[in-house]
Amino acid sequence: MKMKTRSASNSLLVLLVPALLAPAFLLGSSNAQTNLPTMVQMNTIAAGADGKFEGAPDTAVLRLDVSSQQNTSREAYDKIAAAADRVRAALRANGLDPKIAQVASYGVQPVIDWKNAKRKVIGYKVDTAITLKLRDFTKIGPMTDQLADIEEAQNQSLTYTLEDIELAKAKAAEDALKKARNQAAAVASAANRTLGEMLYASVDVNQQNIVPVQMAVMAMARSGVASTPAPTAEFSPQSVTINAHVNAIFALK
Residue 115: in which H helix or E strand, if any? Predict the structure, then answer.
């Protein structure tokens, strides 16, 4: 006798009665996450379940895009160099080591007049992106405010992440396995059987994507209102969610 139940997030396959020369059973499912082994032994139960872990982020990632277009590449370079120096000054003013800043990208490209048949170069544009990782969230407001005053600043974006990700993954997998075991135990009990030891398990873990919060830095800089709170003031950072899916096979007693 074979008993089989499925849902959008969980799957169960129970094989209760042994058979002579039993073939392998292939588990088909509309759930793409469910990939249980094709060879299932008699007197076993296979279960799949989703789990998750939600935790407060421990790191804020602040990205600043800086750009300048000038008549010569040297003039554009000098503008970006001056902007970078102001970033270093803002970091020091907030008690941060400028070495925490990372250059995500840097590029120099000519600006061409495409309306001119000779494709004349009319200037040069220099772009760079600077990324900061902040552990102290109280620094976010002052940093975004001071970086907004940089003339060449184009955009700021803020995301939150969890650096200690491995512990979070383990907790998400533990939650998924607990749900799979509970469902398997419930089905085994309904069939007057006892759930035995786990014979097999596979784990798939992924992190929820967080869309960066874009901030119009030029509008902030021109407002000139010193008493206006920072965009992040009094708000809680978005929690980080780790999702896990576990497929497991248990023996039946």
Answer: none
Q: Comparing C-alpha atoms, which of 151, 135, 163, 121 is closest to residue 218?
A: 151
Q: What is the pLDDT of residue 202?
A: 94
- The residues with which 210 forms a beta bridge, in sequence order, are none
Instruction: Judge contact between 178 and 52, C-beta under 8 A.
Output: no
Six-digit token string for 52: 């998750």
pTM listed for this prediction: 0.64
Residues in the chain, pLDDT under 50:
1-8, 16-33, 218-225
In CATH, what class is 59-161?
Answer: alpha beta
Q: Where in the chain is the domain with CATH 3.30.70.2970?
A: 59-161
CATH code linked to domain 2-55+165-207+242-252: 3.30.110
DSSP structure string for 173-212: HHHHHHHHHHHHHHHHHHTT--EEEEEEEEEEEEE-----
Give the model confidence (pLDDT) of 82-126 as tens digits.
999 999 999 999 999 999 999 989 999 999 988 888 888 999 999
Q: Which candidate, 234, 214, 106, 88, places its Cα nearest to that of 159? A: 214
pLDDT tens for residues 38-58? 555 789 999 999 999 998 899
For CATH 3.30.110, the residue range(s) in the chain are 2-55+165-207+242-252
Binning the chain into helix, strand and coil, the percentages to the nearest 5 are 25, 40, 35
